[in-house]
Structure formats: C-alpha cells, structure tokens
Amino acid sequence: MDNQDGSVYAVLGEQTDEDGRWAFGTGFHDPLSGVDRAVPAGVDRADLAAYCLMLGDDALVLSQRLAEWCSRAPELEEDVAMANIALDLLGQARLLLTRAGEVEGAGRDEDALAYFRDEHEFRNVRLAEIDCGPGPGGDFATTIARLLVFSSWRLALFSRLAAGSADPVLAAVAAKGVKELAYHRDHAAQWTLRLGDGTEHSHARMRAGLDRVWPFVDELFTPHEVEQRLAGQGIAVDPAELRSEVDGVLDVVLDRAGLSRPALPGLPGPAGRLGRDGVHTEAMGYLLAELQHLARAMPGARW
C-alpha cells in the first residue's frame, strides 16, 4: 500500500481495474449482458409484462417468506441456507420485475413494482404467500414442504423457458435460475428425507407440512389466459404441461422419505379466480405490510 496517509481504507476510492476493487466484490456476471431487450415481434406488451410479473411476484413473495427464518432456523447452517435461497429468489424477482416495467412502458422500475402495488395487483401463486414461517402457526417442516413443491415446479418451468422461450430476456433469466433452483430443490429434498425418515415425531411434522401446502398445489398447474396466449407464441410455458414431470419428482422424494402425496383437494378461489388474477389469502396483506412498510413510510428515500 503506497497511499500517502497510510490508511488501509484510502485504496477503496482509488481508480483501479475491476479486479482491484476487491472491497466491492469481483467476478460478478450480468446474466442479461448483451441480451436483446426488444419485445419479440407480434407479442402483446401487456401480456408479456403480466407474465413477467407473475414469475417475478412468485419469487419476490417467497423470498420474503424464507427471509423470515433468518436467525430462527433449527440450526446455524440452515439460517445461512434459507438466506441464500431467499437471495437467489430475490435476484430472480429483480430481473423479472425490471423486465415487466420496461415492457409495460409506464415508467415503473423494480422498486415501484415491489413496494407500491396493492395486494390485488400482485400475480403470484398463493402457495408462495401462505404463512408457515417461524411465527405463530408456522412450522419448519411446512416451509420445507412448500420449498420442495415450489422449487420442483419452478425448475421444470425455468428449464423449458431457458431452452426455448422466444423472449431472449426470459430465456436468459431462466437459464440463470435453473442452477439456483436445482440447489433449492436438492436442499428441500434432503430435508424431506431427513424429517420423513427420521423419528416418529419428525415424520408426523413432515406429514402435517405436506397436508398444509397440498391444497395450493393444483393452482401451480392451472393455466391463466395470459400464459396460454404466450405459450402459443413460444414465449411462455403452459403450466399444465409440467404436471407429470413435477409429480414424478415429488413421488420419488416422498417415497424415499416414507411419505406419500396427500389425498387432499385443491383450494378453489372465489368465482374461480386465483393468485394469477390478484386474488390472495388473508396472509398476503400482512406480508405486504411488512415488505412495503419502509418504502411507503419514506417514499423516494435513498440508502
């Protein structure tokens, strides 16, 4: 170090090549670098924006739920694991919400979409929002059951988007997410085995966790009209096409854990409207109150 004042911190502000800026991290790769951001010809901008919101909201809301486990997980390593999974999903949400904002052309960025929409404007599946965190009524096994189902479904979806979406941005975001989601699924599967094939008590807890999340599973495979239209144009994936693959994965994991899929019906929404339509569970309002409080209390603040 040759700075004149001898301060170890002075070098942080010096102009150096990227590799020298160790304090700010190095080796980061922008998954959208060089990707064509133009909306594919013939695609309805409102539909594409809505689809990006659907996928972005799924990730944002579940990220918020998983972050609730920080400092409250059963063991220290699980604190770190849950935080990392939450950050992965938050990263996916940022890319997808940014894409939604630029496609809709209304001048809304990722922050505006995350913090200044009301409950009925969110398009996430209800599985992501149900409260099974560390607070009252929450349970770690239920969180694992949800993560197993969600990551298995989202990995199947993103694998198809990465391989063939006609929107280069969606394909690039999905390609980045595939590696992350493969880890999420593996982590949830390992915990499912550990709990399901553990003690009598842990088995019962895992069984109860599956029962809690199962009524929300059918919604994952219920096509929304936006998804159907975009699937016909090669942009999106019809979620109904994912059912057999996801069921196969879940059956393998549950069988090895000494468990089986619950024989429970799906939970319908009012007049058939579900999370993709902006109809949510009671838990969603409380989640958004916590997620959005600071931004709404100090609009325009920068930190």
DSSP strand (E) fraction? under 5%
Helix content: 55-70%
Named at the architecture level, the CATH assignment is Up-down Bundle
The H/E string reads: HHHHHHHHHH
* Ends apart, CA distance between termini: 30 Å
The top-level CATH class is Mainly Alpha
Average pLDDT over all residues: 91
Query: Care to count the β-strands?
Result: 0
Structural class of the secondary elements?
mainly alpha
Biggest sheet statistics:
none
> How is the CATH topology named?
Ferritin
Q: Please give the count of helices.
A: 10
Could you explain the architecture of this structure?
By secondary structure, this protein is mainly alpha-helical. The protein has a single domain, classed as Ferritin, core subunit, four-helix bundle (Ferritin, Up-down Bundle), CATH 1.20.1260. Helix content is 55%, strand content 0%. The protein has 10 helices and no strands. One of its GO terms (biological process) is phenylacetate catabolic process. One of its GO terms (cellular component) is cytosol. InterPro entries: Aromatic_CoA_ox/epox (IPR052703), Ferritin-like (IPR012347), Ferritin-like_SF (IPR009078), PaaA_PaaC (IPR007814), PaaC (IPR011882). It holds the Pfam family PaaA_PaaC.
